[in-house]
Amino acid sequence: MIAIKRLDATEEALAVIDMISKEHGDLMFYQAGGCCEGTQPQCFEKGGFFPRTNDACIGTINGFEFWVDRDLFEYWKYAHFTLDVLDGFGPGGFSLETPYGKTFKVHYRLFTEEELQHLEPVRRND
């Protein structure tokens, strides 16, 4: 059986990612567990943010890593993430889509019992 992905993106999000990567090069995503940036996914130039010890890389979008805060991942490890983008400004404004009047958002759904048995492994930051 094929491993079940933990992460996907909408066509709209992929179009914004393509636009940003043409300007900034390689990217990375990080979804924190709160504080000033909330739980909204942030997009940075690759290396522009350093995941903490034991944060989880749940997959890639167009080859760009998507990291999740270690505590947030423990809460959402049974859920599939779909990255989307909306018009507007999210909290914080540190993310690279902000100057375009866009903000990334994640839609969640719980994995089925069968999917849980075949999930792609996560990679932890050592």
From TrEMBL:
- An example Pfam family from this entry, by short name, is DUF779
Top-rank taxon: Bacteria
InterPro entries referenced in this protein's UniProt entry, alphabetically: DUF779 (IPR008497)
Name listed for the protein in its UniProt record: UDP-glucose 4-epimerase
